[in-house]
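Office hours follow-up: a student asked to see two folded examples consecutively, so here they are.
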Amino acid sequence: MDRGMLIARAEAAHTALADLLDQYKQEVTPTKRGAAKERSRIAVLRHNSIARLPIPAITGKAMGQHRDSRLKEVSPSTVKRELTLVSRCIHSGTMKNGICTCLRGIRSR
């Protein structure tokens, strides 16, 4: 394993999903046509317990629990949009910051 990968994993361990959501809201969301709606989705996600998890702790199990709890509160289409947003935030953080993650991608059905 090369040195760059170790640094990226260490950075990922200290980066919470909330940090990536904030970065995404500042850098990507303003360029979108539906920026206002996306900002409100980000605000909802930031208040959820999943936002406090470090990136390596966001597993399929954690996302499944988040999905199941959100389905009790909102419609399936809302949950799908939130999962897509989380996936995009993680992908953006991986590409821009070089954060290494073991996730193969969070996909919504």
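And the second, which I mentioned at the end of office hours:
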Amino acid sequence: MGNQAGCPFGGLALLAHLPTAPVSLPPQLSNAQFSRVKSITGADFTDALMRKDVQQMLCKIADGVNPTTGVATRDSLYCP
């Protein structure tokens, strides 16, 4: 998957885990389904809109810092 910044992701389903390579999810991510996600280490969710329950689920497993953007995964999700 790699860094897909600027690419539209309508109807994307993220299953099992995100790729091991650091990713920055674009703000155009829409209708995405996060199920059975095991790792989001290094992912940058800055400006991604999501339901509160999805955010809370992702915060439970959020870890790492995106080496491209320098943003911590937990910070990009606004985790408490």
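Two things to take away from it. Confidence is low (pLDDT under 50) at residues 1-21. The chain has two helices and four strands.
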